[in-house]
Amino acid sequence: MARSEAPLAGIDRVAIVGTGLLGGSLGLGLRALGYRGAILGVGRRPETLKTARDAGCVTETTTDLRQAVIASGLVVMATPLGHFVSLLEQIAACNHRDLIITDVGSTKGEVCAHARRLLSVPGRFIGSHPMAGGERHGPEFARADLFNGKPCIVTPADGADFNALNMVESMWSALGMKTVRMTPEEHDQAVAKISHLPHAVAALLVQLAKRGGAMRVASTGFADTTRVASGDAEVWTDIFLTNRAALSSALDELAKDVTRLRDLLQREDMAAVRALLDAGKGGRDELIETWRHGED
Amino acid sequence: MARSEAPLAGIDRVAIVGTGLLGGSLGLGLRALGYRGAILGVGRRPETLKTARDAGCVTETTTDLRQAVIASGLVVMATPLGHFVSLLEQIAACNHRDLIITDVGSTKGEVCAHARRLLSVPGRFIGSHPMAGGERHGPEFARADLFNGKPCIVTPADGADFNALNMVESMWSALGMKTVRMTPEEHDQAVAKISHLPHAVAALLVQLAKRGGAMRVASTGFADTTRVASGDAEVWTDIFLTNRAALSSALDELAKDVTRLRDLLQREDMAAVRALLDAGKGGRDELIETWRHGED
């Protein structure tokens, strides 16, 4: 998947703000691809920065965001979503007009709106959502191949700078990601359905089982279905907050589907139940089959 | 976990009716533990029986259930649930009063009620639910260690024969399972919450995502959350049918929880959302931690 030329041609230094699982893996991945420029880890906690540097995720570190922005050609915001407004305000204050900015946040509507409002050259902000990760966090879990083979949604605004868009998309492609362009709104509705709703349901299923005293007989099926519930609660509260409209709609839709299935069972309409299970199996098998063949 | 003495002492031949993933793995597991008696695979399709025998799951095969019942000391019903009534009727007709009978079905209320109604010595039927498996089926996926470390719920009826109960429980324990005794009703309510509800939700999530055109950006989190939806739709329709009362209640409970979360989001009550995600993470992490330490 990875391209043969080194990524980020023409950029001497990339600043990664937040060197956790995603930021750290981005640094490792760029180095594995032969990126020769400096990779500057930016954060507030010197211990996290030291861990990231010791793990080879970054080649330099600083706690001074202003200094990092001025010295870099690309800034990647890889902190939790709750810090994005403050980061964009600080980046805007640096007035570095050639800077390209992207992020790795799980929702796109709010960050893109903030970028449009705060930045003097909003077209050089290109929203990204690399769909990789897991319930573990911290640079100690970073992997150069974390992004390989996964989708990355890129959400350029109207009037996006072509060079900035190309730089950001080619960086994710070089890391093996399949980039998909969407508007921020399309993105937020799609991820509400395939990520935020499943996360919400996983948390609810755990509580329902616990309330009913059923956890002692839980097996691997339950553990898999609820795996995502082990994700960081602070991170996910931010995700739910910034995508509350689309997630609310998806929850409504699910509540109706759940009630409909309850009615089918009570009527013993097993042909309809069977059709529902067939469709679920068909859709899920198709997803796995698509991945196996590496198709888009 | 496995006991040092060979399992099923005093039983010269065990008949496994249905040599799919569970039946086949039971045969392999018994042989791996040094069981010296005959393991008779019983089924309707000679090809499946041949596959099971070639894979070493059974030592003998027959399509004649009556012959198998008469020649055996223990019969394990490992077919889909939909065949249990017919099997119990045929077993009852053999009038083999020393026979011990168990099953591996995912619901227990109906099969225990049928056993009580149909068998002349109902106390020698001991319902079992070994909570192992996966979405693949067939003897070609059978593994001697499939049951190791997993829970097995045993549902003896009032007046259960002590020797039969002991034989069945010690067989599952020898295979490394943690046996838990419940009434059939307790069992069905517990598995509705930790197995049948998650399965139903997985199928609904797949359909909701597909309907919304969101599958093209699905990632590993979605694949894990919906893994169980790839299970055999016929098998699961039977499970839902035989556990429709408990599953309906669980679906009702979930629909209320989903709607409550929707309300919290719309009110932007993020403290309550955070508490819900914390509880979900806490419960799920605790489950994994318990497994890691091998506690009960």
**CATH superfamily name of the largest domain in chain A?**
NAD(P)-binding Rossmann-like Domain
Compute the gyration radius of chain A: what is it?
Answer: 21 Å
The low-confidence parts of chain A are none
Number of domains of chain A: 2
Helical amount of chain A: 40-55%
- The beta-strand count of chain A equals 8
Kindly report how far apart the N and C termini of chain A lie. 12 Å
Number of helices of chain A: 11
Q: Please outline the major beta sheet of chain A.
A: 8 strands, mixed
Q: Biggest sheet of chain A: strands side by side, in what order?
A: 3-2-1-4-5-6-7-8
Short description:
Chain A has 296 residues and is of the alpha/beta class. Chain A has helices spanning 21-32, 46-54, 65-71, 84-94, 109-118, 162-174, 184-211, 220-225, 233-242, 244-266, 270-292; strands at residues 13-17, 38-42, 60-62, 74-77, 100-103, 125-130, 151-155, 178-181. The radius of gyration of chain A is 21 Å and the shape is elongated.
